[in-house]
Design goal:
This protein is an all-alpha fold and 118 residues long. The protein has four helices and no strands. Keywords: Membrane, Transmembrane, Transmembrane helix.
């Protein structure tokens, strides 16, 4: 498989990781698991993921931990938290810590697994 052809699957994996993170968070806080509810929680983080992809030019090396994975992860958390704050959603310190660690495990974890298999 050519490197460029991995980009759509890698982007889909990143989106899936963010949506799973948001769905788990909503479930653990007894919030509804509706499509609209998950979308409301996920959009700030997905915006960050998109920016991370652009900044890292992730389509060039979509499975790379550095710089792609780290850039996507950091942008996901930072932009996600900023957008949550300006849109009136919660940004408690404990949430920032959990979001940072969980998205690291998800966004970097799938890349580590994929790299070991390639």
């Amino acid at each position: 498989m050519r490197r460029g052809s991995r980009a759509p699957a890698a982007l889909a994996a990143d989106v899936l990781c963010v949506v799973v993170f948001c769905a788990i968070g909503r479930r653990s806080h007894a919030e509804g698991l509706t499509v609209a509810g998950v979308a409301q929680t996920a959009w700030p983080f997905l915006a960050g993921t998109a920016l991370g992809w652009v900044l890292a030019r992730a389509w060039r090396r979509p499975v790379a931990l550095l710089p792609t994975g780290v850039a996507v992860w950091v942008a996901t958390v930072v932009v996600g938290m900023v957008l949550r704050k300006v849109s009136g959603q919660g940004t408690a310190t404990s949430f920032i810590v959990v979001a940072t660690l969980t998205t690291a495990a998800l966004l970097l974890g799938w890349r580590a697994i994929a790299r070991s298999l390639l």
